[in-house]
Amino acid sequence: MQRNPELTVRPLAGLPMFATGMSIAQAICASLEAEGDQFRDGDILVVAQKIVSKVEGRTRDLAGFSASEEARELSRVAGRDPRMMQAILEESSQILRGTSAAVIAAHRTGHVLANAGIDASNVDGAAEGRVLLWPLDPDASARALRAELRKTSEVRVGVVIADSMGRAWRIGTLGNAIGCAGLTVLEDRRGTGTDLYGRTLQATVIAIADSIAAMAALAMGEGAEGTPVALVRGCARWVTAEDGPGAISGLRPIAQDMFR
């Protein structure tokens, strides 16, 4: 019987309030140094999407969006600010459904989620209509952060950019990988692994990056904890030398989509 690794996850303390142009990598390294720690081979840094968006200048004021007729129609259906609807439209490739609870959109990166990932929680100025958009390319953001982190260490380090999303037919949100570098996104065990009775696995594809993001989200918290980065250890077997294809490789192709 194969023994599973012992996994540990801890949020990093002492991180600043991030703003445009700041270095997440430098803040992470300073936090580790303050704790008397350093990177180990196979470490994974899970970083909240919000701080990546903030340092990349993805904050927007709704006053800057001019509502189109499509946005106004969506506003009537969803009962939401038409300027917010315009922001969602501009960040989306397709609107799947609009209700008073949420607008379900296919983000231009391919991820399907509520409101195209646009959020106002933990955003300074939200009361005045300020919102935060996703990074332009979350996988590219993960690769850039990994490259900067590797300047301080020669060990293999993986990076996951995570955001909380809802799930079809389930209540509540779960941490998901929206950007990834240096980590196996999917472990395909079909035809290679076996169950306890030696039966060859037929349908098992494990969402490694999403599983790590979900675990880290519990440690980081969703509210005023102020801990937007978590260090995960015990997953070295999934950390890769190359950046890899990114989180986008974990999206189901439209041809296999059973809901659209």
Give the class from helix and strand content and strand pairing: alpha+beta
Query: Which fold name fills CATH's third level, the topology of the largest domain?
Result: 60s Ribosomal Protein L30, Chain: A
**Poorly predicted tracts of residues:** none
The strand count comes to 12
Q: First CA to last CA: what distance?
A: 40 Å
| Number of helices, counting only DSSP H or I runs of 4 residues or more | 6
Strand order of the largest sheet: 1-12-2-8-9
Mean pLDDT across all residues, rounded? 91
**Which class of the largest domain in CATH terms?**
Alpha Beta
Main beta-sheet annotation: 5 strands, mixed
Following the backbone from N to C, one meets helices and strands in this order, namely EHEHEHHEEEEHEEEEHE
How many independent structural domains? 2
Classify the helix fraction into a percent range.
10-25%
Task: Classify the beta-strand content into a percent band.
Answer: 25-35%
CATH superfamily of the largest domain: CofE-like
